[in-house]
Specification:
Elements: E1 3-9, E2 24-25, H1 33-46, H2 51-55, H3 60-66, E3 69-74, E4 78-90, E5 97-109, E6 113-118, H4 122-129, E7 145-151, E8 160-161, E9 171-177, H5 184-187, E10 198-204, E11 206-211, E12 215-220
Parallel strand pairs: 2-5
Antiparallel strand pairs: 1-6, 1-7, 3-6, 4-5, 4-12, 8-10, 9-10, 11-12
């Protein structure tokens, strides 16, 4: 069972690689499955008043989100802006924060992106479709996207998991996802519990184009 959702980026996108440090963070080209699922959780809570059902033990609503496989198709290239910005970090001594400079990348996505969802059952599909269209940003707050439409019969995704037996051109990036043992408490930002994210190495079908000290462009294959 599959369906997809098309989104058009309406601002620069930024979502740092989870392996990066806070002072030097490169951005992914696309929202990770982890970020997409967190965006759906956010809408289910804020727009659907589903906090109680999502946080319950053995929550079927949480499983609808966490157990859904997410893949991607892209229809254009990327231009990555290299920037230095001011951030606040905890002081090394005493309490409070201090200002420092950090490296960040901001990505211009040149065309719409397609998020392909594979839920386990019809009930999960109905639940997801109630909230996906309400999402207006992924990743870093301010990385705005406009929902365009749903598609009931999506084509095969063109962003593939890396496979050493099927080599092809592209750029490799590592994307996070919920692990099999994910619970609401473990992914909640307000819980002391932590979670070890699943890692998937994805092959983005783009090749390097022009570049300078301030930007790098990637052309869609």
């Amino acid at each position: 069972m599959k369906f997809s959702a098309f989104f058009m980026p309406t601002s620069l996108f930024s979502l740092k690689d989870s392996n990066s440090t806070n002072s030097g963070a490169k951005s992914l080209f696309l929202p990770s499955p982890y970020a997409v699922k967190m965006a759906i959780l956010n809408q289910a809570i804020t727009a659907g008043n589903q906090l109680e059902s999502l946080s319950a033990k053995k929550s079927k609503e949480f499983d609808y989100i966490s157990k859904t496989k997410i893949s991607f198709s892209i229809y254009g290239g990327f231009c990555v802006n290299n920037s230095f910005i001011k951030i606040q970090r905890p002081k090394r001594e005493g309490i409070g924060y201090q200002s420092t400079v950090s490296f960040r990348e901001f990505v211009h996505i040149s065309n719409k992106i397609e998020l392909i969802f594979e839920p386990d059952c019809e009930e999960a599909k109905i639940f997801l479709m109630k909230y996906i269209y309400k999402i207006n940003y992924f990743g870093k707050r301010g990385s705005f996207f406009q929902f365009l439409k749903y598609h009931e019969n999506p084509k095969e995704n063109n962003v593939k998991e890396f496979n050493t037996t099927e080599l092809s051109a592209g750029i490799l990036q590592e994307y996070d996802d919920f692990p099999k043992n994910a619970t609401f408490e473990k992914v909640s930002n307000y819980s002391p519990k932590t979670i070890k994210r699943d890692k998937n190495l994805l092959l983005i079908p783009v090749v390097s184009g022009n570049s300078s000290k301030s930007y790098s462009s990637y052309r869609f294959l």
